[in-house]
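Handout, section B. The chain below has 254 residues.
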Amino acid sequence: MRDAVRGALAGTRVAEAEAVAYVEAAIAAGAAPAHAGDLALAFAVASGDADAARKLDELCAGEIAAAARAIDPDRAFVDEVCQRTRVRLVVGDGAPPRIAGYRGSGPLRAWVAIAAQRIALNAKRDAKPGAAASDDVLADLVDREPDPELRHLKELYRAEFREALTAALGGLGDRARAVLRLRFVDGLELAQIGRLYRVHESTASRWISGALDDVAAATRKHLVSRLAVTPGTADSVARMVQSGLDLSIARLLA
């Protein structure tokens, strides 16, 4: 048992004695001794060890993706489910990460695959119609805009704004789009995003700021080109894009 624990912890900073005590308690509670290594890895991930989270990714990434594809093979859907599964397993949002619920009655990979399948089914059930729903959502943001000039512009160019913002988000790289969703849809703190990507929270902050800047610039460029506005109006369009950008992104990525 100790050899299995030691192997699972290789490359992590988790104390072996603590993991052994956890595994022994789990086996005493009914866990199968054959899954001692899986229990130790789950313990290390739940403890917040970044290298353990990487090992979990390497172990279970294929199972998570396969579970998502079984529900919907669309790449965007699979990517979303993989991200949601990783967040729920690894990040503790005011409660222990879900990986802490692994009890060792079966292989960890199978347990993670079942969790991913449930998340995929819920994601499919909660899926919303795209354009119409997004348009209604942005209409709500128009009503909440406190600046009269910007409210008028958002009402006047609402469809164009949604189209430009959607195109800008679509033009982002996978990581940039993922961190924006984690921050503004899932509501993760910078430290939690950093933990997921195994970087410092200041790096996560730079990623998000950079992605926001890219989205704002691309949206503004698209709108100014599409609307053929005067330089003065272009300045107002730039202010319109910047106003409530995080909320607009959150609604479109949800």
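Note. Residues 2-126 form one domain. Compare this with the example in section A.
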